[in-house]
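Annex B. Sample input.
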Amino acid sequence: MKQKYVKIVVYVIILTMVLTSFSFIAFMPAMLGSASATVYGESTEDEAIDEELALLEKYIQFIYHNYTDELDYQQLIDGAFRGVVEALGDPYSEYYKNKSESSQFIDSVDGSFEGIGVTIQLIDGKCTVIQPLAGGPAEQAGIKSGDIITTVDGKTTEGLVLSNISDMLRGPQGTKVTVTVDRDGKILTFSVERDKVEQNCVSYEMIGEEIGYIEMTGFDSDANLEFKKARIALTNQGAESFILDLRDNPGGYVDMALDIADQILEEGYISHFESKGKLLKSYSATKTEFVLQPIVLLVNENTASASEILAAALHDNHAAVLVGTKTYGKGVAQQIAQLDGEKSVKLSIYYFLTPNKDRIQGVGITPDYVIPKGTENAAAEASYNGFAPMTENEKPAFGEIGLNVYGAQQRLALLGYDVKVSGSMDAETVAAVKAFQNQNGLYAYGVLDYTTMKALETAAYSYAHGIDSEDLQLQKAVELLTE
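Annex B, continued. Sample output.
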C-alpha cells in the first residue's frame, strides 16, 4: 500500500460536553504550537488492507445499484466515513460531513451563538443536560441539570450524536423549540424561545473583607485574561485569599487552563499528555507570575476536562485545597482535522495526566474535603416524586377543581403554605397562590396560570432536592480560609 500524505488543519480541543444551541464545548486552536500540522499515514506492506478497501468500494457500489430505493452515492460514502469513527466506541470522536456541521461546533467554542443555552453530554447513550447557562433561555424555561432530553419538536434524540441534537436545539433568535425531558422518571415538556447567547465565563466578588471569590463556568478564548483581571481587581479590593469555583464547569480551551495554572503556580508540572502509552509533552510552571495567597478550589461531579487539568495542577502542587465532590473524569482530548474542503473529523488523540502522571479519564479527582453541596430532604424528595403532574390545559381560579389544583396544593403544602390537598380551588388555596405569586415577583391574583405553575414546580423541585439549601461546600471553603 503506497504511503499516503494528508495535510490537515488541526484544532486541539479539550472537550467534556458539547454546548448545544448555545452549545457547550471546550476547544483550543494551536495548542501544540502551530495553527496547522501535517499528518503522515503509516506505511504498510499489508496487501490485505488494500484488498479490504477495494472490497469496500465494490460493497458500496453493490448497495447503490441493488437497493430497493434510489440512493445518493454521497449518502453511502458519508455512512462509511461515519462508521469508521463509530467503530471506535468513543463518545468524544465524531465525523462531520460538511462545513456547516463542523462550523457549528467551532462557533460554539467561541461562546456566542443562537439557541437555548444548555450543556449536553451523552451519558449511557442518553442526552443529558449537564448545565443550563445561567440566565439563558433553557434555564428561564425551567430546564435543569440532570434532565434527559428525550425529544426535540417531537423528534426523538435516541441514537443521535451530539451534533445532531445540537442542530435540533439551535436556531434563529426568536424562534421556539419544544423540548421534552425525563426528570427522575417524570416527563416534562418546555417551550423554549431561542436567543443569542453570549457566555462570559468569569465572574467575581468579595466575600467579607479578605476573601476573593472567582467563579469560572468555562474556558473560552480569553479566560486567562478574564481570570487575571478578576484576581487583580479582588486583590486591589483587599483580598488576601481566594475561592476558585469550578463546579459545573464543563471545560474549554486547553491552553487557557494551562495559562491560569501558570499564573497560580510558582513551580512544578502543570500537566502531561500521553498517547499510545507514551508521554508526548509535559507542561511546567514558567515562574513568570504566580499567586502566593491561599486558595480553596470548589469542584463537583460536573467539573470536567480543562477544569480537571487546572484542579489537578493546583492539587498535586499543593497550591490549593480542593473541596466538594469527585470530578467528572473526562481526561481525553480531541482534535478537529479537516479532511478536505467539506469533511472533517473530531478525534480523540491523547490523554492528559495530572502532574503526578495519574490518568483522569474515567477516574476523576477526589477533593481533600468531600462534602455535598446542600442538605437534601429525603422525605420531601420522596413526597415530591409522587406528586400529581400539573399538565392540564387549564388555569384554575376560585371554585374550580382538577388535577392542576391537586398538584399545586401538594407543592404549596411541601413549601409550607397552609392548604388542604383536595383538588378544589378553595379560599385557602387562592390565598396561598396569591402569597406565592407575591413572593416570587408574579402578578398576585390567585389564579393558577401557566407561569405560576411553572414557578411552583421549580420551587418544589428545588426544595425537595436541596438545591436552595445552604451551600455547604462554599461554607467549608470560607471556614478553611478564616481558620
